[in-house]
Amino acid sequence: MDQQKFTKETKSIFPWMIMILMSSVTFVGILSELMPSGVLPQIMADLHISEVQGGNLVGYYAIASAIFAIPLVSMTVRFNRKMLLLILLSGFAVSNVIAGLLHNYTIIVFLRIIGGICAGVMWPMIAAYGMRLVNPEHHGKAIAVVMAGNTLGISIGMPIMTAIGNDYGWRTEFVALGAIIIVIALICVFALPSVPGEKLTKGSSPLALLKIPAVLIVLLLTLLGVCAHYGVYVFITSLVDEIQLVGGTEGALILFGAGSLISVLLAIKYTDKYLRLLTTAMFALLIVSMVIFLMFGKTIGMGHFAFFLWGLSFGPLVTLLQAAVSKQVESAKDVATSVQSSAFNLSIMIAASVAGLLLGAYSPMGLTYFAIALAIPGMVISFSAKKTLD
User: Fold this and answer.
1) What are phi and psi of 16, to 5 degrees?
2) Exposed/middle/buried for 134, CB within 10 Å: 0-12, 13-18, 19+?
3) I need a labelling partner for 53 at 20 to 30 A (CA). Which of 6, 256, 267, 379 fits?
4) What is the pLDDT of residues 60-69, one digit of tens each?
5) What residue intervals traverse the membrane (predicted)?
6) Mapped to the 3 state alphabet, what secondary structure does the chain carry?
7) Residue 332's Cα: distance from chain center in Å?
8) What is the C-alpha separation between 36 and 113, in angstroms, rounded?
9) Region label for 300, one of left (φ > 0), alpha (ψ between -120 and 50) or beta (otherwise)
10) What percent of the chain stands above pLDDT 90?
């Protein structure tokens, strides 16, 4: 599809089908990263590995994403966007299918690292790709729709894939995801418009971006928001057990997912107009939900309500932060979002490490204090950052 013609046609019409297709890419992208965690006992028993080795199947993936995002996005910014996305989807498909067929742990780890490298490039580039297909006033909406796949993958995709793994084996789950990715790639061949790459200049390099105060503010918000959310989310089962939630972890995740879905829909509609308000509200809702856990978590119904509110806060996290950083640059948005994406992944690693130490020293309720302590400055900074977020 011709880029100039496509841009003309979308001046007044938002390309929903194109954006939903891109959303399916982020959907399988997050599944590719998190899928082992749902069937970890099966993988450990089958490959005869320890719990630490099993956890590394997710950990090495995340580390590869964080380390390689900035350099590889900078290297590939000149590539045609459609061609690059097809290469990345091929990498996702191959790494999952072959991992599902092999019995050698070391090679599977290597394949997971390949998947992580593909993810490190895919997350920032697909957001920028989507923005280039719409007018500036729809940039936030484009990011919200594309990144909705991430939230839906966590809230809906993971339970489905885990059920497939439990019923038919983890290898079937991996191969099935690889097959789904191949189908999505084939649709992309015919449906996505071809968009040329951009020239990387000194002014749009990662180091240059880190000299922009507004970018640093967004990265600080990323650190605060991601650590606050994931510090609790990584150990969500411990929190559920602590408050003795009726319905257990499954019930908690359903309510969390419902809240996330609602907030994603709100983000799609309002991110372009109310980015600062939504970012402030995200931190505020996180504080309220954690306070409810602390004060009324064991009260019938209140714990469930807290998980729903937490989901409302969590849903637009990726969307709002990527929309915020993309507002700070005119060109090479892929590079800007790659910097933010690396900060996002590094923040998850920090959150998991710190939360693990807190959990060992205190009860799971200590994690809610950790989240509140980070969310309060996040809310204040968001509300005050008029030049950055408005």
Assistant:
1) -60, -45
2) buried
3) 256
4) 888 888 888 8
5) 12-31, 58-77, 84-103, 109-130, 142-162, 174-195, 207-231, 251-268, 275-296, 302-321, 342-361, 367-385
6) CCHHHHHHHCCCCCCHHHHHHHHHHHHHHHHHHHHHHHCHHHHHHHHCCCHHHHHHHHHHHHHHHHHHHHHHHHHHCCCCHHHHHHHHHHHHHHHHHHHHHCCCHHHHHHHHHHHHHHHHHHHHHHHHHHHCCCCHHHHHHHHHHHHHHHHHHHHHHHHHHHHHHHHHCHHHHHHHHHHHHHHHHHHHHHHCCCCCCCCCCHHHCHHHHCCCHHHHHHHHHHHHHHHHHHHHHCCHHHHHHHHCCCCHHHHHHHHHHHHHHHHHHHHHHHHHHHHHHHHHHHHHHHHHHHHHHHHHCCCCCHHHHHHHHHHHHHCCHHHHHHHHHHCCCCCCHHHHHHHHHHHHHHHHHHHHHHHHHHHHHCCCHHHHHHHHHHHHHHHHHHHHCHHHHC
7) 21
8) 13
9) beta
10) 44
d(CA 221, CA 316): 13
Residue 151 amino acid letter: T
Q: Provide the token pair at 208.
A: 């240059």
Cα-based distances in Å from 153 to 28, 66, 261, 347: 7, 20, 11, 20
CA distance 85 to 153: 19
Q: Give the separation between CA 147 and CA 153, rounded to whole angstroms.
A: 10
Handedness of CA 355, 294, 255, 389 (dihedral sign): negative
Considering the entire predicted model, what is its pTM?
A: 0.82
pLDDT in tens, 83-141: 999 999 999 999 999 999 999 999 999 999 999 999 989 988 898 899 889 888 888 89
User: Would you give the distance in Å from CA 253 to the centre of its chain?
Assistant: 16
Provide the residue type at 237 as one letter: T
Domain architecture of the chain: domains with CATH: 3-191 (1.20.1250.20), 202-389 (1.20.1250.20)
Token representation of residue 356: 């693990």
**Nearest CA among 25, 294, 18 for reference residue 138:** 18
Per-residue pLDDT, 222 = 94
Say how far apart CA 154 and CA 32 lie, in whole Å: 11
